[in-house]
Inverse folding.
């Protein structure tokens, strides 16, 4: 590090399950250059100031989805948030909201993983094809229907943004519903009716009150709020039309 | 399997109410609550004959029903959901009866009145 | 035995902790004004159905300073409701396609403002001169 | 210590591990599969792959062409029988990915679209925007959920393989959330732990790409093959090393020096044309392009940048619309990380360590020399990349050989018997104590970060794009020194739950072993081939002496032993490796010879 490096104060909400009853704030002074990310800031802390600080990270390029944290109260990917944006103020870091803290900046996301598994996130075709038959056809326009919703990196920022998930942990939540929607909208899939049952439930789309913050914080422009709320319309149609056309409208 | 929610019933009414509120209420409040009372426009706008005349025709009846009942559903639904936001988690059935009951009453009463007028 | 002891943070007071949440709560609170105003209209209808004198009393009651103050605030709430309603509508509607391309959200929202503006004018025109 | 029983254990939840797990689950044997990964599978580094996956698709293409491109691209250090198998099964595997839901880009008629890639004669790279690896990984992960036989151990860290009776019979893992150590007993073990480019400083790899599986197999006596061949990718972000995919050039991007000149024409890749032309200019292979940038730097024709000497990746002429559609992630990286708009400004780039061509030696069916142990994906050297991998061959490798590994492990597990559980547990206990000892006794003064940084810097100096003996020797010595210092490492965190410092220390041990294999393999190869280029009198390829694989064997006392093995040649005799106009001539020559041979 060169001598003209600036120094920024980074405050981290620490929690060590084997020692602490509850989390507490600890402050660090970190030298940085303008192109350094918040992730690089916490890496500096771990390497040189306190080796016990724990956080997840890997790709450094906003695609693996592991480095999300609350940065001054806003859920963000720390690898694509830059220290300079906060200087000369200080930065406060906290584990993603609405999840149990395992240690320091690490959350327990097993609840989400269970939900992801529950939505049947795979193609269930009407008539399976053999490899010899080649690929299914899908026009660019059909692809476009799912492209945005299939670019979720499971970073959990939307869950940390959604107060309804915090209030009702059973709520399926933005990313899981979006993924469900992605498979429902895929022209290769034929299991919409099965998945609709999850959406129709109280814990499905009806857990959402359209706070909309999930879409604001999404680093990949997935727009989970749209995926959820369009399904309120679908679910409502399903509700009323099931009497007319059993197994739900479409 | 998860149980189907009955939310679509109130949600559709809420949605319809929201649309009505967004497209009419600023103007209605302005006219009935501000412009006429303050005399910014002629009091004839809300004269008895005019309103009674409105409530006489089918279109007028429908209009009045829509601007009273649907906003009530919209309001009831939002307030009911907000209870949870503020941490009031018990007594769900009770509050359902109170709020949606009120909206239902606010639908049936004008219906009854309008049909009778 | 496990060294795990996940810490669950309380939610109390969450709606004050982020300007986005404050705006959300504000949006939801507009429902109170909407509800009260709808009840006022309902009362008006009741009066209307009981004859001219009753109706006129309702009109007089609307002139009280308290009523006017309420309506000024309620109108603000109604406008806020409208603005937020239009801005989230694209999340509820299926995507709008034009010439095979998705219409950008900003355009849809702007379109709704224009549409609502026209409705307001028509409505106002009908009420005042219709 | 808890013992968990499975029929097969797969270490690694990246593309290779997931594909293997699905194959094993589909093998109809009803065997249980333990899938261990130190991160949630969808965080694996496959997620970062951008450009695409190659398979012969168009009518004018031919398996023969893909074979030739791969073998020549690998400077004839490929196992040709394995390459033949690879190209023949590439397409069906990508179709399989399609059936599982991978959102490949399409043509108007609904068929899968392909794009151009470096070193490939015909466009054959399937792509999902510039997030191909991301989409493949999530598709595989989500599809794997369909199979109840796959039991995942997410965020479990593998610390050793249990070998008994000359066979791999399970692995010892740390449950990261608790620090608990368990033994997963299985009759077949598959390693799919990914590459090791983290041994270099400027690299495109994620923090988890630390060569774990390579080190584990290596320590058990399995050879690491061809480790000197580390791929430098020419277009990386200065400072962070983040990748700008080769597809930037496939879509028509230019590389220019400080004079705005497309310098690749000076390095046997010309002549330039406005439109991208396969195997010409910017679509030359990675080793050649990276080397050209190095030479430009020597000539003072690069551009000063706070993070080094750079050249420009110029995509301005492609226009914003095309860039947003085909390269959205690249656009985002440039905008957000560098604050520039690639539709209006060129992107400064420099080469960074990217891919480990070498790895755990396996045969063409992914079996290692240790019975019951299989290796697949970037951690393995199955023999298709030779001295230089072609872009977009690796993602396909994960599928083609992931499937083979799953099938093979499954049939091996069917016939094999475990030794007595008690014996195995005894071994596992010893491992457990050793691993715990690392954290309990780590009260030295050596900082993990210091050793790691010194290693990475020294590797970059000694084993970078161009190499010479004195500097490589310095690197070898440095690594020996660092391994000594590693013994008195300090771990401040003594806790159990989520002790990531402990894990970092273990990973550092893996990195050091792998780095040593790289450096020692490099210094012993006295020729230049593919990505291994020397400047100390060994500038030419030397088929006489070095048309052979390097095998590095672990030695707990010092540098590895270096041996060599034969390269399997089936139908392509080593020839001139040339691109651009020279390449066309060379190919015409080859064809003439072949034709003549045919006529006789
Ligand atoms: C930026 C980038 C772009 C690329 N683009 C392309 C491209 O366009 N086309 C192409 O063909 N190739 C590309 N590649 C190469 C290709 O992506 C990789 O070679 C490939 O994804 C490796 O897959 P893998 O399954 O072998 O390993 P990985 O995906 O790295 O997975 C390794 C797995 O092993 C697990 N693991 C590792 N160590 C342990 C341990 N000790 N205990 C438990 N689990 C462990 C990890 O958790 C992870 O799940 C690219 C590579 C990079 C870095
Ligand atoms: S929807 Fe967006 S914010 Fe939510 S997990 Fe996916 S990528 Fe992250
Ligand atoms: S923030 Fe939550 S309430 Fe709905 S719109 Fe997003 S899921
Ligand atoms: S480190 Fe992968 S998303 Fe930030």
């Amino acid at each position: 590090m060169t001598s003209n490096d600036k120094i920024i104060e980074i405050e981290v909400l620490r929690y060590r399950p084997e020692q602490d009853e509850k989390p507490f704030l600890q402050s660090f002074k970190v030298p940085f250059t303008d192109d350094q990310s918040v992730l690089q800031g916490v890496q500096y802390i771990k390497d040189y100031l306190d080796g016990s600080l724990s956080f997840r990270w890997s790709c450094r390029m906003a695609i693996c989805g592991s480095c999300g944290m609350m940065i001054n109260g806003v859920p963000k990917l720390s690898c694509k948030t830059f220290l300079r944006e906060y200087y000369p103020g200080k930065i406060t870091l906290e584990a993603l909201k609405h999840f149990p803290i395992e240690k320091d900046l690490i959350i327990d996301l097993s609840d989400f993983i269970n939900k992801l598994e529950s939505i049947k996130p795979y193609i269930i075709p009407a008539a399976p094809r053999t490899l010899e038959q080649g690929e299914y056809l899908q026009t660019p326009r059909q692809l476009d229907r799912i492209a945005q919703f299939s670019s979720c990196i499971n970073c959990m920022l939307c869950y940390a943004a959604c107060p309804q998930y915090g209030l009702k942990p059973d709520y399926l939540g933005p990313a899981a519903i979006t993924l469900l929607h992605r498979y429902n909208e895929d022209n290769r899939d034929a299991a919409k009716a099965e998945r609709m049952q999850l959406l129709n439930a109280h814990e499905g789309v009806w857990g959402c009150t359209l706070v909309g913050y999930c879409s604001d914080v999404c680093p990949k422009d997935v727009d989970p709020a749209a995926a959820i709320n369009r399904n309120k319309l679908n679910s409502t149609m399903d509700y009323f039309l099931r009497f007319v056309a059993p197994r739900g409208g479409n | 399997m998860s149980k189907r929610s009955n939310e679509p019933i109130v949600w559709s009414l809420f949605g319809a109410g929201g649309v009505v509120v967004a497209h009419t209420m600023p103007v209605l409040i302005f006219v009935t609550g501000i412009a006429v009372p303050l005399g910014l426009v002629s009091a004839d706008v809300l004269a008895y004959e005019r309103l009674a005349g409105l409530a006489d025709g089918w279109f007028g009846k429908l209009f009045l029903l829509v601007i009273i009942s649907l906003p009530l559903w919209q309001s009831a639904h939002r307030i009911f959901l907000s209870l949870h936001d503020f941490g009031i988690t018990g007594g769900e059935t009770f509050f359902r009866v109170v709020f949606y009951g009120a909206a239902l009453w606010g639908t049936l009463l004008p219906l009854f009145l309008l049909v009778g007028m | 035995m496990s060294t795990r002891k996940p810490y669950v943070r309380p939610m109390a007071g969450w709606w004050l902790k982020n300007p986005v949440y404050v705006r959300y709560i504000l949006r939801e609170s507009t429902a109170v004004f909407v509800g009260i105003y709808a009840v006022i209209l309902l009362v008006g209808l009741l009066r209307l159905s009981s004859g001219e004198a009753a109706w006129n009393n309702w009109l007089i009651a609307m002139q009280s300073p308290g009523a006017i103050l309420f309506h000024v605030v309620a109108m603000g709430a109604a406008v806020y409701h409208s603005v937020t309603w239009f801005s989230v509508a694209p999340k509820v509607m299926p995507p709008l396609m034009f010439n095979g391309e998705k219409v950008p959200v900003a355009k849809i929202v702007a379109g709704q403002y224009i549409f609502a503006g026209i409705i307001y004018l028509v409505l106002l025109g009908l009420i005042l001169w219709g | 210590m808890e013992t968990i029983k499975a029929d097969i254990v797969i270490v690694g939840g990246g593309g290779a591990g997931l594909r293997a797990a699905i194959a094993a689950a589909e093998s109809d044997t009803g065997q249980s599969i333990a899938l261990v990964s130190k991160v949630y599978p969808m965080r694996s580094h496959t997620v970062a792959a951008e450009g695409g996956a190659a398979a012969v698709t168009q009518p004018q293409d031919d398996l023969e062409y893909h074979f030739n491109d791969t073998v020549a691209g690998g400077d004839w250090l490929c196992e040709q029988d394995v390459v033949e198998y690879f190209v023949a099964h590439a397409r069906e595997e990508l179709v399989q990915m399609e059936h599982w839901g991978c959102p490949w880009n399409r043509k108007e008629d609904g068929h899968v679209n392909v794009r151009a890639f470096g070193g490939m004669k015909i466009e054959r790279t399937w792509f999902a925007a510039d997030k191909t690896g991301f989409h493949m990984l999530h598709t595989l992960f989500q599809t794997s959920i369909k199979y109840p036989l796959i039991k995942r151990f997410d965020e479990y860290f593998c610390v050793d393989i249990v070998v008994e009776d000359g066979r791999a019979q399970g692995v010892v893992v740390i449950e990261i959330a608790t620090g608990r150590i368990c033994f997963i007993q299985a009759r077949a073990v598959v390693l799919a732990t990914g590459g090791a480019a983290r041994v270099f400083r400027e690299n495109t790899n994620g923090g988890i790409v630390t060569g774990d599986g390579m080190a584990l197999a290596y320590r058990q006596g399995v050879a690491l093959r061809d480790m000197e061949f580390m791929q430098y990718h020419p277009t990386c972000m200065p400072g962070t090393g983040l990748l700008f995919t080769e597809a930037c050039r496939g879509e028509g991007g230019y590389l220019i020096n400080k004079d705005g000149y497309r310098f690749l024409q000076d390095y046997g890749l010309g002549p330039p044309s406005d439109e991208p032309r396969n195997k010409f200019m910017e679509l030359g292979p990675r080793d050649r392009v990276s080397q050209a940038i190095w030479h430009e730097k020597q000539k003072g024709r690069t551009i000063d940048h706070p993070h080094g000497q750079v050249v420009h990746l110029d995509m301005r002429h492609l226009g914003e619309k095309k860039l947003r559609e085909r390269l959205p992630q690249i656009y985002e990286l440039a905008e957000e990380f560098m604050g520039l708009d690639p539709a209006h400004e060129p992107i400064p780039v420099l080469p960074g360590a990217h891919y480990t061509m070498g790895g755990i030696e396996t045969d063409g069916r992914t079996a290692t020399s240790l019975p019951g142990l299989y290796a697949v994906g970037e951690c393995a050297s199955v023999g298709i990349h030779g001295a230089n991998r072609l872009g977009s061959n690796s993602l396909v490798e994960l599928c083609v050989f992931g499937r083979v590994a799953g099938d093979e492990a499954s049939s091996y597990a069917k016939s094999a018997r475990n030794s007595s559980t008690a014996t195995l547990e005894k071994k596992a206990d010893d491992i457990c104590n050793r691993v715990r000892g690392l954290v309990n006794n780590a009260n030295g003064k050596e900082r993990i970060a210091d050793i790691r940084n010194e290693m990475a810097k020294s590797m970059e100096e000694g084993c970078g794009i161009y190499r010479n003996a004195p500097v490589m020797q310095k690197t070898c010595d440095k690594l020996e020194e660092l391994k000594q210092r590693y013994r008195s490492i300090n771990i401040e965190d003594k806790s159990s739950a989520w002790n990531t410092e402990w894990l970092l220390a273990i990973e550092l041990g893996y990195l050091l072993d792998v780095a040593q294999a790289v450096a020692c393999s490099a210094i012993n190869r006295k020729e230049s081939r593919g990505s291994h280029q020397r400047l100390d009198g060994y500038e030419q390829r030397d088929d006489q002496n070095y048309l052979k694989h390097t095998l590095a064997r672990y030695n707990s006392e010092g540098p590895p032993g270096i041996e060599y093995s034969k390269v399997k040649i089936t139908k392509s005799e080593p020839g001139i490796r040339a691109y651009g106009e020279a390449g066309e001539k060379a190919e015409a020559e080859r064809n003439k010879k072949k034709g003549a041979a045919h006529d006789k």
About this structure: Chain B has a mean pLDDT of 94.
